[in-house]
Amino acid sequence: MPGLDPFTLYAVTVINIVVCSLALLFVSRINPTVHGIQQCGFGGLLIAAGFILTPIVSQFSRPVLLPIPTTVMFTGALLMLAGLLAFRGVFSLPSGAILWTVCLYAALISFAWFAYDSLAARAFITSTGLGAIALASGWVMWIRVPREDRPVYWTNAAASYLHGSALLLCSGNALWGTPHARIFGAGKVEALTVATSNLSSFAFAFGLSMATNLKLQRVAEKQALYDPLTGLPNRRFFEERLEEAEDRVIRTGGRIGLIYCDVDNFKWINDGLGHNAGDAVLRNVSRRLRAGLGVGDCLARVGGDEFVILIENPPSSEAVFDRMKGLREAVEGEMKVGERVIEVGMSCGLAVFPDDVGSPSDLVRLADAA
Predict the structure, then answer these.
(1) What number of other Cβ atoms are within 10 A of residue 294's Cβ?
(2) What's the pTM value of the predicted model, to 2 decimals?
(3) I need a surface site. Which of 151, 166, 255, 352 has the fewest CB within 10 A?
(4) Any idea what DSSP says for residue 233?
């Protein structure tokens, strides 16, 4: 591009990284419950600081300062990776692990500067370290993303993969020279790295902001549709699922089975042993019920100690009865609550449409009465 000299590109890159990092810090400020965004913002500022320090340090006559800019950039990239891990809830990267990784990187880059005195070795270590972190960041935004959220998360991942690939190309160029100079000349590789750096910075900030909004939306949906104590769907979720099943049965035929359960003597447990014991019993019961579910079944907590299981298209009423019997056997028995072991029982009733009732809306009433 005419008039766009290397210094201008360098300045534009630094400004872009700073602006994107400040945007992430702003997002973390207005969404303090979302983890990791603040780390990503500070990590981006460290990368920008490394860029700024590079020409400044080169003006000093003390060689010991030379590895500092690249170490600062590596630290920033590692902090951003730690922020992404916290954001996705994959696992936490301990501060001790970050510190030791930075120390190892600083030792390697110092060795390349002073002991080995090789420009190619310095470029290889710098590009490989940053490229590996970029690829790892892409992986974090790629794994275990629900289908409906993939356009947001995977766009961010693609930008990280692109920048990481460009950096590894730069590593190969430093390690093996330019055997294919016409295609991958040093200048072309550096231009590609600068371009992908700007692209990934913008995509990272924009994509992570969108992912934050999406994450908050999913949390709000979960709070509206799921029971916070057991993690099971609540009454609202169950009623929506029952309406969907009713529509399908009316259109295509089939059956709907419903099992209604409650914990025996739960009031005595809750009042006699305390609310914490009652909560522990409900969590244990929900885990045991969940373990006995079939494919496509919907288990929900619809009251204090009341659970319902929706079974779509059971082959017969007898199959629903067998499922109910298996669920009762899975739940009933001894259960450890704190320091005590208590005997837990469960009462269940069932109803099947159209075998027992003429309308799916009567299933809950009949199963509860049963």
Answers:
(1) 12
(2) 0.70
(3) 151
(4) B
